[in-house]
Amino acid sequence: MTTSNVSDGLREFCASLDELSAAAQQAFAAVADAAALEEARVDFTGAKAGKLKAAQQGLGKVDKADKPAAGKKFNEAKAAVEAALEAARVRIHTVDISGVSSTLTGALASFDPTQPGRPFRLGHLHPVTQTIADMKDIMGRLGFTAVEGPEIEDEWHNFEALNIPAIHPARDPLDNFYLATATALAPGSSNRVPGPAAGAAPEKPLLLRSQTSTVQIRVMESTPPPVRIISLGRVYRPDTADATHYPMFHQIEGLLVDRGVTMADLKSVLRLFCQSYFGKDEVHIRFRPSFFPFTEPSVEVDMNWQGGWMEMGGAGMVDPNVLRAVGYDPEEVTGFAFGLGVERVCMRQHGITDIRALYENDVRFLSQF
Ligand code: PHE
After folding, report:
1. Does the predicted model carry a pTM greater than 0.90?
2. Measured by CB atoms within 10 angstroms of the end CB, which terminus of the chain is less buried, N or C?
3. Hey, which bits of the chain come out as E strands?
């Protein structure tokens, strides 16, 4: 700064910075090991009592008109000090491998292995997955084995064997996600896409299962009584999404078939299940008469929630027609079945009021659970 109109204050400030950066060059050039380097680093660039910090405070004493020039000078001095520090770092971390001096430059050289690491942010299970695990655990203790069934089903398992005949309104294509199989897209169908070659055997209509009751059939078809199973998984219905509906949700299905099973067993198991889940004193369940083609009698299951009742799903005694369809003898064995919404339980547990929040996959929301 040699211009004549430079103020004394600014000149002094600049001189002290020149002195500081010269001292820094010297000090950093002289350090011989990491400990000395660290000492020099703190001396010059320490955030609390470093010399740079002290010099920066001198900025306040410079005349207002000189502030921009002084600021610029300070930044230059700071850059020079930091460059000297970096050069010393590179020099000290230079590794000598069998006579070949290889210099670790850039990022590698400034890597300090003595610094504590940055912790990884661990993910965790989705709240619905946690609910499913808890349910399996509780029902497992009541003696129920968890089994799985396919999400793509045929009409036999989703309807027919469950006593839902072809004319039943529950089979309406508008209420189910049918898949575009060869039959569904037969010649003449308006939205025909290239299908299997002409003359191929007509395929069975397939759909995304609308209920986990399909698994009852699959289990009974392949196992003689007694059976005591639960099945947890996704089901699909073309519902418009709102606070309590979503086109995909999860159900827990329970099935117990043995000699002399009664409605009282059903209520005990459901009560025990809900009480183990939410705590004994809080939870009450109630049955309301209802109708399902595959149970007789049938009930809706409600659980108390926020001063009212929340519908959990359906249940009932397995209809003799269903037992016959899978080759069981309804004179020999009886059974109960239930199907409850997993999201409903999960929402009650966490006080979640909108099911859509579970599937927007906003980690800020999900990480709370
Ligand atoms: N499958 C029925 C539903 O999805 C629920 C249910 C299961 C009812 C088992 C009775 C017995 O609504």
Report:
1. no
2. N
3. 95-97, 100-102, 145-147, 152-154, 206-208, 227-236, 248-258, 285-292, 295-305, 308-318, 334-341
